[in-house]
Amino acid sequence: MAKQLSKKPWGLGKGWLIAAVLMAVGLLLHLALGPVQWQQFAWPVNGVALLVLLLVVAVVFVLGSRVRFCRFLGTYGAAVPALVVATALTVVMGLTRQQTGGSWLSDMLRFWPFVLSYTYIALILGLVVLKRLLRRPAWRNVPFLLNHVGLFMALVTATLGNADVQQLQMWTTNNADMANRLVGEEQFHQYERTAYDEHNEPHQLPIAIELKRFIIEKYADSTTVRRYASEVMIYSQATMHQYAATIDVNKPVEVDGWKIYQKDYWLTDAGDDCQISILELVRDPWLPWVYAGIIMMLLGALLQLFIGRKKQVTPSP
User: Fold this and answer.
1) Within 10 Å of residue 15's Cβ, how many Cβ atoms?
2) What residues are paired with 36 via a beta bridge?
3) 121 φ, ψ to 5°?
């Protein structure tokens, strides 16, 4: 009797226990180490972390035939509590204003319990995918695999890729000499290549931007600004080409993997003789992988819908 009870499959209770322990470990790590320092996971460290995650998934899957705990991780009993915890933390993140350096819940992307919860879900997803690959016939698994592999890809690359995201600010002018006299230092150049991060650290970019003209339009009989934009020439070091573009608010221009946004401006007393435009440059090299995962999920959903409708119209024998 005791032997039969020991073989009884684990259920949601064990899943909730594992999720609770994981959250407790996350809180202890946060108290001991502080927030997750994503800059320490920049390439190639995040690439190594991805390989380690894939290796762990493979090892746990192999051990699943002999170790009860490893076998349980690929079941609904483990997945449901993990999803509930991750969803709850995500809802809190959506309802709380997020800012770097804020409190635990207002800097969720660096909150250890949040990071561990999504890592745990990635582990479960990997195990579920490997289990489904062994089912036959293989063609019936295609929609499921597209959905789950796509979700795994989007989740993991969005998380690890966060370390390589660059968000910089660049000040450009159509009259570098006059702008430098106004600020009292040699800060501006005709072809601006230097951008600054949130800590005001300079970064030399592989593109240069020349401001040709700053556009500002106001409503008739009003001082309220209706539109502001920058007419620029962008020089690419990689392709040795130059691109003329107009950068509008909410209409960025993309060159060599950099998205260039119109962020702000500074109106000087010199008027059109010295215009200063403030641009924001964002680069996320992992974003194509995130998009690929999302496309796979959409294809899986469409294929599942197609198969479901085909079953409905197929006459019974």
Assistant:
1) 24
2) none
3) -65, -40
